Structure formats: C-alpha cells, structure tokens
Amino acid sequence: MSRTQLERARAGETTPAMDRVAERENREAETVRTAVADGEAVIPANHAHEALDPMVIGADFATKVNANIGASEDASDPAGELEKLHTAVHHGADTVMDLSTGGPLAEIRGSILDHSPVPVGTVPIYEAVTRAESPEALTTDLLLEVIREQAEQGVDYMTIHAGVLMEHLPLTDGRITGIVSRGGSILAEWMEAHGEQNPLYVAFDEICEVLREHDVTVSLGDGLRPGSVADASDAAQFAELETLGELTERAQSAGVQVMVEGPGHVPLDQVAANVERQREVCDGAPFYVLGPLVTDIAPGYDHITSAIGATEAARAGAAMLCYVTPKEHLGLPDADDVRDGLAAYRIAAHAADVANGLPGARDWDDALSSARYEFDWRRQFDLALDPERARDFHDQTLPGDNYKEARFCSMCGVEFCSMRIDQDAREGDGEMTRTATEIDLDASPAAATNRPPVGTHDTERLPAWPPDPVDAMHGSAEGNGEADD
Ligand code: SF4
Q: Which of 19, 58, 214, 389 has the greatest number of beta carbons closer than 10 A?
C-alpha cells in the first residue's frame, strides 16, 4: 500500500522527494524529514504526477509563491492554460493552482499536470458545483467523487473548505464585505438551503482516506477570511481558525500532509499576530496566505497592497504566499498581470528570507550590488529578478553595446553619476583598491534556491512554449521518483 511523505517521514524513512528537496534548499535531508514528520513542512507530491520536481513548503525553508491559473466560462482553451502555466513557471511560481470553472475541466487539468514541474493545486468544490449546476444541488457523494477523480489524476494539493460551520455564519452578519471566499459562500448557501452542517466537515474523515491514498496534501481553506481590513481578525475568522486547528490534527492523524490557508485583507499592524495565532492553533502546520492586502483603497495596484502584507506575513512565519495581480477585484489577469504579480511576490518572499537570515539568501543581493557598483551591466541584467525587464528599461534610453560598459546610465547622466564620482574620488585618494568582492553564487549556500532568473526552479524543467502539438495534451516529463511500496 502506498504511504504518504508524512507517514514515511514518521517511520524514519528519507524518501527520494526529501533528498531532492534537501538538494534544492541546500539543507540536510534529515532536516527535511524531521520537519515533514513534525507536520511543520509538506512536500505536495501526488504519486501520479510524473512531471513533478518535488519542493517543500514550511516556515524553515525558502518562502514559496503560488500563482493561480485556470479557465472560466468566458475563456476556456486548454492550450491557453498551458501558456499560462509556462508564463507562471517562467516568472518564478513555485506552485500553480488550477482554478478552472469552465470548459473541459478534466482535460485542462490533465494537460497542466502532464506539463507542470511544480505542484498543482485545485479547489474541488468548483468542479462539483459546475456538475451539480447550483450550490444547493451539491451532495456529499458528488464532492467525494470529484475529490477522488482529481486525486487519481495527479493533483498535488487541494483546498478543502471544511472549517466553515453553520454556527459560524451568524458571526459574519455585521461585516462590511460578508463572505468573500468562493468556497465559503457556496457552502454557506448550501447550509442555509438545507439546514445541515457543512458536508465537507461531516465527510472529512472519508475525504482524508482518499487524500492519504494518493498523498494529496490538504490545504485547509479559510472560507470566512476577511474581504476588507474592517472585517479582519473578527469572531468569524477566528472561530473558523479554531476548527481548522481541529481538522489539522485529524488529517495528520490520518497520515495526510496539511497546510492551512489564511487571510485575505488585514491591516499591517495585525498581520504578524494573525500568523502567530495560526501557528499556535494549528501546531506549526505551514501557513499559506493570500496576500494579505493591507489597505482596500488601491484597485489596480493590489499586487502592491498585498505584497506589503505578504512580506510581513512571511517575516512572521508564513510558508507560502498566494500571489495577487494588479487585476485583483477588477478582472481576469493577462500575461503581463501574471508577470507583475509574480515579481511583486517573489520580492516579498525574498525580502522576508533575507530578513529572516535564511542561509545564503542575501548572496543574491550582494552579487547584484557588486555588479552594479562595477558597472557590469550585463551581469546586473542576468542577476535581476526579471532580467528581460531590467535590460529593456536600460536600453530604452541607452540601447547601444557601448553603453554596456558605460560608467553611468540615463537616470543621473554622466556628469552626476554618484557611483562614478565616488569611485573617481576614492581612486584619487588612493583609497580604492577593489570595488567589491566578487560573489560566487555557485558556492553560495543558496546555490539551488533564490537563484536567478527563476527563483527555486531548475530552468531545464521549464515547460516548453509553444508545446509540441502532438505532445501538448499527453506529454510527460521525468517521474518524481516516488513509486511507493
Ligand atoms: S547614473 Fe545614477 S542610477 Fe545610473 S548608475 Fe550612475 S548613480 Fe546609478
């Protein structure tokens, strides 16, 4: 019988996935095994996801970033979803969530799984609602059927909103923005229509049996997350969190890997307290936060309002950040929005890793600063979080090859370039022997993580774009080495 990473870690076994994760994070495999065994880290790796390059999510490892993709009723093209997958991984997504609600859902998901080197997450209740045709028509059997089918297909983690209970619903009455989670609002409508408890809560043990069989990590959804800073940290949010703590223990006891989802919209001064409360209630299970947005006033710029909250959350111990794009609250993101959202979140994740002293994280900063001071423009571009953008912006005003050795750029101009003036002055004083020590990133403890140009990814595993037309729907890459006993 197959066992999960959690069960194998508890048995003292170091799996191939743990070895690979340790290599990517530059850590000891035993450190990874212990964190997984203690429930403080997860390795979402469904046995059937053959293209996966395993990664780890936990507060003691590099902060990860998720990007949402997925088709809607208005835009449901499988090839388009593969293009979104490519864009997301190219710009540094550590995981993707397929939130499709329209089109041939199983076909789109299968295609994404065939090509994705990063873990793929879903929210099964979306597909269940499309099949039931209305929230009220959902049944427990249908929910279990969809979860089973997606698990068999190879989904690595699933958001299950089992923590929204009937008794929590009145606590949302005084809110400005009510219930803003899609899953939470669907389940609230179902409970009110039927006068019965949340079916995902009632059937949670059966759900865990399915997840355990395929080693699907459960991501406990926060259906009552606040949708505005006014609603943050209220009774409804924290009542649900208590239930998520109970469910964390139940799922882990069943051998299922667990992470817990968090808010949403939270004023900056409450973010750290939210993270600390989750870690206490859920016994250190990895916290996966959406933002949070720290103000509600900036539609069109919510990748910025939320990246501020995400930085603070990661600094306080959140393990994974779900990106937000500039289109949040306004419309479906396009490729440029995905790029901007991922850049904002990779900055948030890296800034927190630097501040938290993650081994080697700052080497990247030091290498880029050194290249900058030495006017090594090409190396500066190569090291940039988004090399294409850095090169483009520089070349908009100084495009020629001769400017790649210039001791200035167009920002201050040759006369007022402070770094040139400083270097000339130091050389004149005889003080300057060397501008900076060359940083050898290959020798850095972060050699395989935080590594430009695509974060924690092995660039050779980037899904090809455009895909081979024959292979597009059925392709496969190397296995994840997790064929179990
Ligand atoms: S001109 Fe200004 S911005 Fe450009 S390299 Fe010199 S100091 Fe930096």
A: 58
